[in-house]
């Protein structure tokens, strides 16, 4: 088990990737703490992953994050791994078509992805600095380096976390704390399938035709799974990556080389 005895935090632990991250980290021997705004989601993860500590927290609120960090330290006395995965659900919309409500949703998305990641690092990393070790892994995206029409909120929020990771890697490296990113592309899910079906209907073709076209743009001809992403996180969190910081592992099946 690569993370035996470690204390690992996952922020933004939703029912999809967040749940998988918690499960895989736990399988690798870590004691896992999950944080998210929705208590019901956290309770479901805690029920499915034995031993997980669930703590409600809004990562965009300073007092919430400060209280969360104190709770973890009071319980375990240390933090070895911090995985920042918080990001609200985003919608597709071109900038020039945005209403006042859309603009506010855009602001919240970027605030969660950028400022929320910053706050989690600000209040948790000092404990890593004190123990002279630790690994921070920020979940960014293929979109953090290549923008797509209608996804400016997602791209801007993830790009903020991406470049913040570089800054923190430089700042925290002298204290033995590593900061890296895992950048997924598409992740296999019902939501992705539904989007492909919508595109297929709009073009008057079958789902299978859309899927084949999309796979042909990927070097590996396969769409990554949540576990593929989680395994990359485990590598960066483990001692196997002890000389790796300021780096990004792309988990996109070869859809984008950067």
UniProtKB/TrEMBL annotation:
Instruction: List, alphabetically, the Gene3D superfamilies matched.
Output: NAD(P)-binding Rossmann-like Domain
Assigned protein family: Belongs to the short-chain dehydrogenases/reductases (SDR) family.
Q: What is this protein called?
A: SDR family oxidoreductase
Keyword Oxidoreductase included in the entry's annotation: yes
Species of origin: Nonomuraea turkmeniaca
Q: Which UniProt keywords apply?
A: Oxidoreductase
CDD domains, per the entry? SDR_c (cd05233)
- One GO MF term attached to the UniProt entry: oxidoreductase activity
Task: Check the record and name the PANTHER family matching this protein.
Answer: DEHYDROGENASES, SHORT CHAIN, ESTRADIOL 17-BETA-DEHYDROGENASE 8-RELATED
PROSITE patterns in alphabetical order: ADH_SHORT
* The keyword S-adenosyl-L-methionine is assigned to this record: no
């Amino acid at each position: 088990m690569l993370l035996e005895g470690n204390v690992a935090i996952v922020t933004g632990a939703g029912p999809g990737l967040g749940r998988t991250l918690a499960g895989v980290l736990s399988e690798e021997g870590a004691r896992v703490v999950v944080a998210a705004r929705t208590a019901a989601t956290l309770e479901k993860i805690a029920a499915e992953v034995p031993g997980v500590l669930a703590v409600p927290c809004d990562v965009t609120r300073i007092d919430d994050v400060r209280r969360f960090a104190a709770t973890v330290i009071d319980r375990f006395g240390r933090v070895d791994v911090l995985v920042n995965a918080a990001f609200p659900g985003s919608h597709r919309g071109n900038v020039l078509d945005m209403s006042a409500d859309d603009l506010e949703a855009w602001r919240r998305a970027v605030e969660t992805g950028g400022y929320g990641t910053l706050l989690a690092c600000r209040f948790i990393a000092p404990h890593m600095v004190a123990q002279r070790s630790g690994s921070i892994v920020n979940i960014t995206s293929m979109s953090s380096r290549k923008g797509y029409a209608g996804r400016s909120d997602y791209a801007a929020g993830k790009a903020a976390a991406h470049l913040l990771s570089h800054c923190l890697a430089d700042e925290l490296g002298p204290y033995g704390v590593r900061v890296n990113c895992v950048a997924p592309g598409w992740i296999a899910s019902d939501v992705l399938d539904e989007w492909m079906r919508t595109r297929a209907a709009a073009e008057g073709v079958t789902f299978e035709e859309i899927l084949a076209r999309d796979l042909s743009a990927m070097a590996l001809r396969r769409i990554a799974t949540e576990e593929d992403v989680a395994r990359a996180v485990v590598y960066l969190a483990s001692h196997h990556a002890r000389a790796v910081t300021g780096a990004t592992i792309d988990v996109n099946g070869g859809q984008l080389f950067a």
